[in-house]
UniProtKB/TrEMBL annotation:
This is Amidase domain-containing protein. Transmembrane segments: none annotated. Pfam families: Amidase. Signal peptide: none annotated. It comes from the Eukaryota. Residues 57-458 form the Amidase domain.
Amino acid sequence: MVIYDPASSVLPKTFISLLIITGLVLTMNGQEFTIEEATIREIQQAFADNKLTSRQLVDFYLNRIQELNPVLRGVVEVNPDARDLADEADREKQSNGGSLGDLHGIPLLVKDTIGTKDKMNTTAGSYALIGSEVARDAGVVERLRKAGAVILGKASLSEWYRIRSINGVPNGWCARSGQGVNPYITSGSPCGSSSGSAISVAANMVAVSLGTETHSSIICPSDHNSVVGLKPTIGLTSRAGVIPCAPRWDTIGPICRTVEDAVYVLDVIAGFDPRDDEATREGSQFIPEGGYKQFLKNEGLKGKRLGVVRSPFVDKLHDSAIAASFEDHLSTLRKRGAIVVDNLHIANIDEILDPHRSGELMVMATDFKISLNAYLKELITSPVRSLTDIITFNQNNPELEKLAEYGQQTFIEAEESTGIGEKEIQVLENLEKLSKEGFEKLMKENDLDALVTPGSRASPILAIGGYPAITVPAGYDSDGMPFGICFGGLRGTEPKLVEIAYGFEQATKVRRPPCFSTSELSEKASV
């Protein structure tokens, strides 16, 4: 990991130690404002009032990373040019006399599978890709840079999206940064694969982040780390320049602390990309004129029809606190004008939720081999050029990749696949049938705007159909572990989902930041 030197900061080192715990406190409009938990809108107001610069904000986050990341391991590496980029953003603001957009000067982490044409690596958390060079920025990174965002660094993840060994690699573990830690309860799972993106935003090591999802990889870590995660419709955001998992189901989306911030990011990264032509040409047709901010409505729940499938999403909850909170939230939804359609059922739900039984995992492994090999061949330089090379690298470097402990069984199964054949086509046809006769039928027959579920267990339903979803912090279980409420809809229904999620968030506002102390950090860092 690139280590940031606090001695070179514009802030005194002794003061920085205090800031890590208490946050940088400013006074704006007669009220105190702290960097911790600050929203994009609040940060932009601080910029406009000359109370804060992008450079100061970047310095704060870099020092926060240095203090917390040895314990939480949410960041793989920081951008050595981040402070220079912040300085440039400040100069642009000064020369233009004000704001240049919602993300201008805002520090942002991207998952370590999203390519950046700079001094950072793009490795999927693996040592196998250290030193590889991408040809250009990923499509979403191009959009972020154009909007003036500061790419602060790369977030950690479940290595290779956990597809290295589905049953072996723990959620949040990668060779380069180690085991990601949930900032709320260190013994709890951070979930994956976009674990570092969620950990870092939750712990205020960055303002906002980008994750990727194929099968629950935005929704689950966001749910487990008490942040907002938005999984867009497939093709709404470009996958070009992103290390692939299964392109037919891959999507890129924001992980933030508020629905509003997630929408600000989505407005920037959504759109057509000729390098991801087919998917984004179709997906971009869903983007509303004027973008998504117009759907941030306090009364967004009014008149919305929300479906509840109790079996298995509610009936099998293991924590009574979550079950009670979910019922309270349903009551809140009703009070805010939503129509809750309860006790619904999805056909063949048990098959849909089991990726082994449905065949989803088999197709994913086949897609991974094909798409990864194509990605590796396009790199300017790389120590590996195929999945075979990666398997060999892992075998030859067990001390780096922890081969003996976690293995690479799914890699080997993927390597043995021979492409999309008759068996895979049958699986894909069945998955499409399961979607149409299950989730789509449920939504259309009941005229629903969204499916509402506690936690992230509905992710397989949303994955196989390329459907969008957004999860919002909803509370904490009896042990203090966070959980969220997930709203999922049909393709292209992000406007409705934003209205619903924002309305719910404004009605509840249950998110709280994790608590740290210097003694706890020192103790955990020494373990």
